[in-house]
Amino acid sequence: MTFSEILIHWYSNNKRELPWRKTKAPYYIWLSEIILQQTQVNQGLPYYMSFIETFPSVFDLATADESEVLKLWQGLGYYSRARNLHATARYVAEELNGTFPNNYKDLLKLKGVGDYTASAIASICFNEATAVVDGNVYRALSRYFGISTPINSSKGTKEFKALAQELIDKKNPAEFNQAIMEFGATQCKPQNPDCHICPFNKGCIAFNKGMIGELPVKIKSAKAKKKYFNFLVFISEDGKTVLEKREGKGIWQNLYQFPLIETNANVNADTLETLIKEHHLIKGAPFELSLYNKDVVVHKLSHQHLYTKFWVVNVGKTLTEGIPTEDIHHYAVPILIGNFIEAFNF
């Protein structure tokens, strides 16, 4: 049996029942692939179900407010994916009359759609023989063929894409692509794969040479920067608080947060009280400041680590720009803020 035949046979016996595998409608496949980028299936599945329930068609998604989309996305991270999702829905609905491009080349032109997503949609929906290459595929191929080229290098990207394209079942690309992604996710796992029941173990170079833990190879990224965030949770006598919308470019663009003072290191209450006055955040009114979390919350992003403190600021006056605390759950916030809101129990 060929590589593709072994793989597809394994898939027919081991595939998970997932809702997006019951359709070839481009909207649903596109939606699932965007949600599952950098997200595991068990985490992404509830979001997928919420999205198709709230936005059953690309037209429904296109006409939604961005704030509604971001709120539904809350907790998945990488919010640029949600903004691109919304922008592409509008483009498809308004410029393409709701019809997605039917080939890899034109799918690549959609905002937020790269090689992997375009290949998945083109193969699953339109039977185009273009191979998917994601983290699962990199891992499976690098181990089986014993390839040590770094997967996050330009050389590695080209090498693995070419290999996957060579292996793909030209007559059944949809099944092959879904099979190899499933194989990497559930069989050839990152840690402790059960190689003894793997259908490829006889020919797998990594297994036979004891290199499972060494492959795939990845170039180490630069050390994450440390940032120190102090969020000010204002509470007024009439039960209001303050949220600010983040403007400009950035990972949290258009999301809401508590007023923020960023410092160069951890600070105590006295230092922060002085900074609050210097920033004119209270405008001379008396206030009481207390630290909510005794232990610093470390929120790790791909390029930076946020050392975070939440400070409760009780003010006696009415907050003219405040919102009722019971309304705080209506706003789209980063997961860091969302976790605090749940814990604080507004």
From TrEMBL:
It comes from Flavivirga algicola. Keywords: 4Fe-4S, DNA damage, DNA repair, Glycosidase, Hydrolase, Iron, Iron-sulfur, Metal-binding. Coiled coil: none annotated. Its cofactor is [4Fe-4S] cluster. It is an enzyme of class 3 (hydrolase). Adenine glycosylase active on G-A mispairs. MutY also corrects error-prone DNA synthesis past GO lesions which are due to the oxidatively damaged form of guanine: 7,8-dihydro-8-oxoguanine (8-oxo-dGTP). Belongs to the Nth/MutY family. Residues 35-186 form the HhH-GPD domain. It comes from the Bacteria. Its EC number is 3.2.2.31. It catalyses: Hydrolyzes free adenine bases from 7,8-dihydro-8-oxoguanine:adenine mismatched double-stranded DNA, leaving an apurinic site. This is Adenine DNA glycosylase. Binds 1 [4Fe-4S] cluster.
